[in-house]
Input
Amino acid sequence: MPSWVPLVLLLVPVGICLALPFKRDLLDKVWLVLAAEAVFGIGVGTYLALFSVPPERDMGEVVRIFAAHVPQVQNALLAVVLNFGCSLWFLIRKSWVADSLAESSAEVGLYLGAVGTALGAIWAKPTWGVYWTWDPRLTSAAVMLIYYAGYLALRRFTDNPDTRATWSAALGTFGIVIPVTVYKSVVWMKSMHQVQSSPETVYPQLVTAFRFSAIGFLCLMIVFIYQRYRIAQEQLKREVAPPEALGAPQGAA
Amino acid sequence: MIPLLVLAQAAADAQPSPGQVGSGRVIGGWEFVTAAYVLTFLGIVLYAASLWVRRPRS
Amino acid sequence: MTPAETVAQAPAVTTARPVRPGLFACTVILLRKDLLLEWRTRARLNALVFFGICTLLMFSFALGANAMALREHASGYFWLAILFASVLSLSESFRVEQENHSLDGLRLAPANGRAIFLAKAIGNTVLLWGLGAVLAPLSIAVFDLRVVMSLFTLAFIMLVGSMAISAAGTFYASIASNARARDVLLPILLFPVLVPVLIAAVKATTMVFEGDPMNQMESWLTLLGSLNVIYWGLGLVLFPRIIEDL
Output
């Protein structure tokens, strides 16, 4: 299979994301399509990576981890950047959509980042001989996880929705320093971790599998953020609406 | 023929155990690959379950 | 002055409304207020110095009498002592304002939000720099260090480092001081963003004690400087929004 085939799949999530600003409730219907594409992409990517790709010259079998490790870390960074965008959006125009979206993207980013970092540790054992080393890339990734865990903790510890939104938006805006450090750490500082991969430097047989998996994880991230967003909106409604004992009219919120 | 056999024997002796480092290339290591993919799918299932548990009921 | 005369003067007072001070004047006034408060009690300064010394000595106790290891990592311990002490100093600087709701008073004064940020951050910089000035000779003595470069370089690194810590720290302390569980929250939020500062400051300080054969000092100082620009800029832009919602 030529390696451009999976890129066709990219049309669906990109198209949906571009259409989203014009039709806000689009995802209510099509999220199942994205979920199906996520299952398909991750399934095909995993199958190809595990069973069809030959072992690489230096890495041997463990090169197969690439198709799971890189997409998750990439999407975690993407989610964190989305968190920054939404935080900025909230600070400029006080939008509750932005607040909920920032919360969801931080949580999904934390989840994907945690799993991605754990996979990196698993991969490090056979190639570097240790699970963890205090190398700039790994350290900055761990720092990012701690920061966004703190971000979510702050949201938990603040009861007033207004205050919570402003503070966490400020945190999210300030926090952009960290993903930039993670992304650039391999270039700025001497790191054991290799620099960002590009299609030219990746093991060529793996590119197709990687692209399937990456697009699958992209769809998965959108679905997860969307579902988490609905939870956040529901919670916001419950906090803002008066309790029913006060005689709130039905369906007022 | 005999030198070839000796070479083959030496190669077999030099064969490092699975996942061993130091020979310049990684041999074996399927258990790491399995662990990585199991962790990935476990993560997806657990996070999806947590979203399901917290789903808005309205 | 009789009460009647006071009443008679009242209109004159209202017409001569005081001019609202600009950003710079406001910062100077607030900074004077903070430093005066500090100077009158000197409680925080004393606590900081003793806490810093304690931390510094604890590192050497924890490592045992391994003089080589201590000397090698001395600048790391030095900056960690400052960093731990900064958490005390920062949360205290906002706790003071919470008593009697004086932060609300300041905002109604009306003081510019940016001026409050600048005053707090500069005040903390001064405190941390002073702490560094006490701890530096102490660590040189305790860890048996030789100063290869000039002491001015060391003072400059300490200044830039404490500026970066104070700018980010003031920003996060203002948030954390009002949330529940603030004692946990401030380090959790602050330390991650200070990691680059810590790395750069420790590297630069190490060069003061061990020489700089590779000429790397300039690049580390540039990194510290650009981090300062980012933290002070973000703090100035975001801080007024935060205190609106306290």
Notes: The radius of gyration of chain C is 21 Å. Chains C and B do not touch (no CB pair under 8 Å).
